[in-house]
Amino acid sequence: MAKGLVIAAPRSGSGKTVVTLGLLAAMRQRGVVVAPAKTGPDYIDPAFLGRAAQREAVNLDPWAMSPDRLKQLASIQSTGADLMLIEGVMGLFDAAADGQGSTADLAELLELPVVMVIDAERQSQSVAPLLAGFANWRAGVRVGGVILNRVASAKHERMLIDAIEATGIPCLGAIPRNAELVIPERHLGLVLPGEVDGFEPFLAAAAQTMGSYVDLPALLALAAPLAEAEISVPPLAPLGQRIAIARDAAFAFLYPHLLDGWRAAGAELSFFSPLADEVPSAIADAVFLPGGYPELHGATLAAAARFKAGLSAAAHRGALIYGECGGFMALGEALVDKAGCSHAMTGLLPVVTRIDRPKRILGYRRMTQSGALPWPAQLTGHEFHYSSAKQSRLPPLFLANDARGEALPPMGAAIGNVMGSYAHVIDAA
């Protein structure tokens, strides 16, 4: 049975992403097959984790997914691997607004030990009570080891390790401060690894550092068997029998568990690039425009006449057209970019979106849909965007509540077989 570990931290910014990437690459170089996963709804970190492991990463979201779904996905993801390595989100016990969905929740559910990554900069002996506090906060969460990050010197390392000995938690490594261990600047928010200059040198440096300063055999020995799924949970139904999916730098946010579920249900998936002015398959009975960064490619999308005509033809022949976040923006009449320039979009929904007056919208959602989506009425999802939508009175796609259960304004729009919203759907509620 596959074994796993969770990499967590007391807070965001401690270095757990860099450490996880370096561990994945270092173990891969040593012949260890590692299956990567990310806690929560984020699309960006899984892309980096998959690049480091050379194996697609999966999202495990303890707020939006049921316990059986999480166990089932973890089991599937770990098949054929020597180790499943799960990167946490924020701090170990940080959760959604209702207190649910933390990294600790996932670790406890999957019965996996936690390795804490602690930023040791500007502290010494105080690291021990910090670590002990996290280790003893919740009985069902086992902290099995610690990796110290940004250690200033050999003297600093000795002080830290001496202090940690009192906790009884093994120190698996002490990583010195290193200017190379920073993910290169992410230009214009285009954060996928293929768009980051210098990612491969960074990954090589991270792998070399983890291999030199972390006890990899001890880390592997700490891993525990994954909790088994008790029942098989059906995936969200495919959008159609033949689904054409936009996939390029403007439409890159796709959850692997959804695509895998659709394939398992017998759907045929094809992919096309709106940025390359490609059209969806002429035999597709559903077209999916996922999230991404259309606001960075407004002029290119506005000039993509073949793509627009192909999408319009699909809508007219009755194919289900569904857009999420960036895909929803592309379904509108126009997109106003950060500079205030308006770009004509597909015009399938009477919506104008704009990002020149940015306001961050972020949070989990429980949605109720009564439209043409072939999914249950109750869904879970996540919303994260800086743009806003102006639309006339249209039938909404979703009625929604936030994580606390408080009602939100209706989301998105649906006109016949064309629909979309800012929500990224994750699972059935």
Q: What does the largest sheet look like?
A: 8 strands, mixed
Strand proportion: 25-35%
Quote the CATH topology of the largest domain. Rossmann fold
- In total, the number of strands is 23
* Overall residue-averaged pLDDT value: 95
N-end to C-end Cα span: 29 Å
Strand pairing plus helix content: what structural class? alpha/beta
Explain the layout of strands and helices.
Blueprint: E1 3-8, H1 16-29, E2 34-39, H2 44-53, E3 58-60, H3 67-78, E4 83-87, H4 103-110, E5 114-119, H5 127-135, E6 143-151, H6 154-164, E7 171-176, H7 199-213, H8 216-222, E8 224-225, E9 242-246, H9 256-264, E10 268-272, E11 286-289, H10 298-302, H11 305-316, E12 320-324, H12 326-331, E13 334-336, E14 342-344, E15 351-354, E16 361-368, E17 378-385, E18 388-391, E19 398-402, E20 407-411, E21 413-415, E22 418-421, E23 424-428
